[in-house]
Design brief:
The chain is α+β, with helices and mostly antiparallel strands. It contains 15 helices and 13 strands. The strands form three sheets. Strands 5-4-6-7-11-12-3-13 form an eight-stranded mixed β-sheet, sandwiched between helices. A three-stranded antiparallel β-sheet has the order 8-9-10, with helices on one face. Bound molecules: flavin-adenine dinucleotide and iron/sulfur cluster (SF4) (3 copies).
Amino acid sequence: MMRAVFDEKKYCCGCSACFSVCPKNAIAMQEDTEGFVFPQINQKLCVDCGLCRKICNFQNRIAYSVDHQAYAAVTKDKFLLMKSSSGGIFATLAKEFIKSGGYVSGAVYDQKFRVQHIVSNSISDIYRMQGSKYVQSMSGTVFSQVRELLDAGEHVMFSGTPCQVDGLYGFLQKDYENLYTIDIVCHGVPSNQLFQKYLEFEEKKHGKIEVIKFRDKQYGWGTNGIIKFKNYKKKINSASSEYYYLFNEGSVFRDACYSCKYAGLDRPADITLGDYWGIEKTDFELLKTNHLDEKKGISLILSNSLKGSKLLELCQESICLYQSTPEKVSKYNHNLNVPSKMPENRSDTLEIANQSFDKISKIISGKMKKKKLSNLIKNIVPSKLKLLIKRKCK
Ligand SMILES: Cc1cc2nc3c(=O)[nH]c(=O)nc-3n(C[C@H](O)[C@H](O)[C@H](O)COP(=O)(O)OP(=O)(O)OC[C@H]3O[C@@H](n4cnc5c(N)ncnc54)[C@H](O)[C@@H]3O)c2cc1C
Ligand code: SF4
Ligand code: SF4
Ligand code: SF4
């Protein structure tokens, strides 16, 4: 019988746990035409042991704890805060974890801006892990590396999308006291292939890209980023970047993201991190404290286990933590409630964008212009007036 690890694409998040666990190295992670990686079994090597399917937590998911402590939080380290997407909690936890002798795993860009997970005990790698990369991070061999470290008695803090965290648990198949996990609230992920095509499109116009950040705090806490070319800088958001537009519109995600099982308060990791969107409506009192600044970024934290509390204790001197509730922190955070909705034109959009960004650019240019206009109007309204409107709408 021909064995397959999954029946339909929507049942596979591409975490690579099956690839890492196969005792016969019979599984390879291969890109499909949309650019997403899926496990492919080499039937000649497969001995039909069934392990790959058994350990797949995405398909066999069980419920986790829903007994959370919820917080609004920000790091006290201004440098880390300005480099982070939200309140800089990841980098602060990671730094303390490494200082106490542990290893941290997270997503970085390689030299070609492909996104992948690494594990490291070097503080300089924390700076590379910082910042949201709106692309699927390849787990590669990192699960096996994490297991080797755990088996050697090292402490590891693994951070990634919730499906990656759950994938790691499935691969390990046992509880490790020395493993700590962080999952991020997750909107969905486009593929590395599509991202590469977008980068080529930009490079044709402006030359070699040196830096790309999807969230840049020089524009405040929001969804504005930057691409730095050798002699030019471009602000990127839904109005100026085709890729960003498609990401925010939710039309180029992996199939599984649209029925994501982690879009809720039932979380696999010890700690969940996200943007505390809507804090001015749900926790307005907290904004009066000196430490929480809407222009610089505020995190939501869910502490989901005893280990989560331990991680927060480790950082009690370096982060400002304010008690909230799961209901409040999730109220205006769409993906803590439901998965992103699949637009009807997803396959067509993906097909065209994968073929040519010039072509997709022409198709969405009208919608991007409308976005530009609404951004312009938003920027004209003085920030004090915006705050007043927000308070009135409370
Ligand atoms: C694809 C994606 C979608 C997101 N969607 C939402 C959302 O809908 N709502 C929300 O509140 N927050 C979302 N976030 C999370 C949010 O942007 C911040 O990353 C989070 O609040 C942590 O912020 P921070 O300031 O503590 O740390 P930061 O320094 O900003 O975050 C760094 C952490 O994010 C991890 N990371 C970065 N890119 C990836 C990636 N591609 N795959 C896996 N891990 C990655 C790093 O490993 C590191 O652990 C998303 C992040 C990503 C990557
Ligand atoms: S283990 Fe991960 S990569 Fe393998 S089938 Fe399951 S979800 Fe897909
Ligand atoms: S059934 Fe066993 S040998 Fe075959 S691919 Fe899956 S894990 Fe590998
Ligand atoms: S939306 Fe869900 S399935 Fe998609 S990357 Fe995020 S956690 Fe994984």
